[in-house]
Amino acid sequence: MMRPSCSTWVPVLVLLGVWTSSAQECGRPPLQSRIVGGYDASDGHWPWQVDIQDSLGHICGGTLISDSWVLSAAHCFPKPDVTSDYTIYAGRQRINGWNQNESSHKISQVLVPLGYTDPQFGKDIALVRLLTPVVWSDYIQPVCLPSSDVQFPSGTQCVITGWGNIRDGVSLQGVGTLQQVEVPIIDQSSCQQMFQVQPREDVTIINDMICAGFQEGGKDSCQGDSGGPLVCQMSGGVWVQAGIVSFGLGCAQPNRPGVYSRVSAFSDFIQGDINGLKLYGSAAQNSAGWFSVFIRTIVALILGHLLR
C-alpha cells in the first residue's frame, strides 16, 4: 500500500484548517443542563451573563456579544461618557462569593441610541466596549443576537437571568448565585391590555419593546436585573437574546409583565457600531449551515481519495 507523501498532506492540512477554523460560535453553552425556573443556575449555564458594577457594587447585568463588547441597557449608564467608575465581570456565578472562572474588565466606551431619555420611552439599549478583551472558555461565551427578521411569537418559552432582587425590596441572599426563571413571551397588544387593567401609571408598549411573564404574576425580572438578558432557544439548540431587561411596575405583580428592549429592533444600531458581528437570522443561518455541510463533504471526499 502506498502512503501519501508530505506534498500530498499539504492540501489536506489546508482543507482541515478551513474545516475547523471559524469565529467563536455564539449561543451554545458547553456546560448547560436543563432549565429550572426560579432557582440557582449551574456554573457555566449562562456563560454570556456579565455583572456590571460601580464603586458601590452591583448595578446591572449584561451579555457578552463578542470578545470586546457587552450588550446592556442605556438606563444602567446615566452618564455614558464617564466610564472609569465601571467594572465588568465575565464568567461570574456568585455575586458575593469566590468565582474561580471569572475575569474583570474596565470599559473604554458606552454607546446609547441618539435621543434616549427614559426606559418607558424606548431606545433602552447600550453597547459597552471593554478595555481588554475576554478570553473564551467553557464559562465565558457569547450569546447570539437576532437580525431584524427574527420573530419571537407569543407563548415562546424564554429565560431571564440575573442577580437582582428576588422580590420587591428583597435582595439576593447569601453568596448570591445567579438566578434563572422561565417565562413566556407576551404579544404587544396583550401586554398593553394588561397594563391598562387598574392603571397606576401610563405605560405604552412601543415597537422596540417586548414583554414576557405571566398575567397572574409570580415570575419576573426585578430591580438589579436591568441590562440582563431574556434569551430564547431556537432551532438547533441555539440561544438567541430576544430582550434586554428594561422596566416594569413592581416585580411579578398581576397584569404587570416585565418589559424588555426588543433586541431585533436595534440590529442596525448594533451592526453599525460593531464591525463584523454576525446576527442570527433564518436566511443567514441556513446559508451558513449549507456551506458548512458542503465544505465537510468536499474534505471527506478528498481525504478518502488521497488515503486510498
What does this structure look like?
By secondary structure, the chain is α+β, with helices and mostly antiparallel strands. The chain is 18% helix and 24% strand. It is built from 4 helices and 13 strands. The protein has helices at residues 6-20, 188-195, 267-273, 282-306, and strands at residues 39-40, 49-54, 57-64, 69-72, 87-90, 103-111, 126-130, 157-162, 179-186, 209-212, 229-233, 239-247, 258-262. A hairpin with a 2-residue loop joins strand 2 (49-54) and strand 3. Helix 1 (6-20) packs antiparallel against helix 4. It is globular. Residues 1-22, 33-37 and 284-295 have low confidence and may be disordered.
What is the subunit organization of this protein? Answer: single chain
Low-confidence stretches: 1-22, 33-37, 284-295
> Main sheet?
6 strands, antiparallel, barrel
Number of strands: 13
How much helix is in the residues? 10-25%
List keywords for this structure.
308 residues, six-stranded antiparallel beta barrel, 4 helices, 13 strands, 18% helix, globular
What is the compact description of this entry?
By secondary structure, this protein is α+β, with helices and mostly antiparallel strands.
Summarize the topology.
Elements: H1 6-20, E1 39-40, E2 49-54, E3 57-64, E4 69-72, E5 87-90, E6 103-111, E7 126-130, E8 157-162, E9 179-186, H2 188-195, E10 209-212, E11 229-233, E12 239-247, E13 258-262, H3 267-273, H4 282-306
Antiparallel strand pairs: 1-9, 2-3, 2-5, 3-4, 4-7, 5-6, 6-7, 8-9, 8-11, 9-10, 10-13, 11-12, 12-13
Helix pairs in contact: 1-4
